Amino acid sequence: MNNFLKPLLSVLIVVGLTSFQGGDTILCDSKALKEKAENFLDPYKYDSSELTKIIYKKQESVKEVEVPLFIGEKYKVVFVTEALPKAVEIQIYNKDKESKNRKLLFSSKDAGPEKKDISFDVSMVRHIFIDYVVPPVETGSYSGCVVFAVGYK
Q: Is the separation of the CB atoms in 132 and 54 below 8 Å?
């Protein structure tokens, strides 16, 4: 009888602990999200895309992604944020976060928090730095993903 109770008790404890864990985790269908981002590039030609996993923490955090570009080309950057449980501010800069005199080129605050498909046209820079400003969460664990695609003319 004792051999039966120990495994049963262990399973009940694990199930109990996970059922009370707050938060949301959204599954990221990377293929579908990338296809959606590519569709928003028209009339630009697809160049590349990247899926970035976002993990929400108790304090605000920033995740930065560098995107190299060719000077003289016109680019369009598209973000699909529908796989995020909470809105994340997307900021695009001309230099990385450690650089002095870095200039904000775009902020998703201008598009509004309910917008899930965001685009920005850029030219005359060698690199852009995409900062995902992840808001804090009070309880639970949250994660999701955002996809960006880059196209050129």
A: yes
